[in-house]
Amino acid sequence: MATTLLIIITFATSFIGAAIVHPYLVRFAKIKNIVDNPNTRKLQLRPVPVLGGLAIFFGIVAGLLAAHAVIDSSELFVIVSAMMIMTYIGALDDVLDISPIIRLIMQIITVLILIYIGDLSLNNLHGLWGVGEMPEYVYVPLTIVSVVGIINALNLIDGADGLFSIFCISVCAIFGMIFFVAEDYSLFALAVACVGSLIPFLLHNAFGIESKMFVGDGGSLQMGVVLSVFVMEVICNPSYGAVAHKSNIALVPFVLSTLSMPVFDTLRVMTARIARGISPLIGDKTHLHHTFIGLGISHIGTAVLISLLNLMVVGAWYLSAQKGASADVQLYVVIGCALLLDWGIYYTIQLLDRLYPEQMQRARIWKSEHRPSRRIFDFMRKIVDKI
After folding, report:
1. Beta bridge partners of 17
2. Which of 57, 147, 207, 253 might form a disulfide with 384, Cβ 3.0–4.6 angstroms?
């Protein structure tokens, strides 16, 4: 009964909180011209407000305050503080376009706060390649590089309407189930609050016209911290390691599988830019979501497709674990599937474009002309804009 009450209170409060704040932030952003303007590498056709992360943060905090009536959520203080730092650094970047070096420094400081105050880290490989617990001089830099990578991978995946929110909802749901089973109710409440806050944002982001808003760097950096915390908790909490050992679950392959598509997409894009002799920080349209949209797939269709591909990697990992594969093999399964589904799909489409340009162009035109009826989308837009 208590867990049911926790879910209802946390979800409802976070959902309502984010939904209430959203239109005010849209109005404020338009008045102050805090918008993302169209350019050659962006997909929108007009300026869009970029303060969605603030609405999500408000909803999460409201949900956690409500959850405190059922459980003691005070242990989340450090995590919420880290989220707040990233939310406002990202929001400042959206407004003032701060230096990438400043962003990087603040990300590293935030990770150090989580390590030394929040007692979270990637300090154990749980038998992967025969390695268990690692010394501080190894796991601290490993944690910094990994978490900063996750944060920025989440930032880069935010390129199609609904993609960021659908992906984060699916990953939070996976970790939420893990935390629920492990009776880790504080982080379970955080996962529920994230889902509740992301849903109203998703509706406005995917279907809104006047109410449309992007999550912005504030939201992507914030959720990057949240998902990194989930990963670190699973890796460093001894109770998860004990359960995993009994069930032949390799924790490192598991957490990598949950974030496989943004991580491997980012690695592919960065590697390709370096190979071409250009800075990996210069944006372009080589992400997988750009490729799908270029094929004529809608934004929401692209978001669902990439999230499903990510779940396929999770499913492949789970099957390998159930078949008794070792930790090393489970990792190789995750890496192989992620490479196949991201790198394989991207380079296959590039190859087909070079070999059969006319046929591929006709397929794109056909796809654009034969999309499913937009009546549902138009109906949703009318409703969402009135909320």
Report:
1. none
2. 207
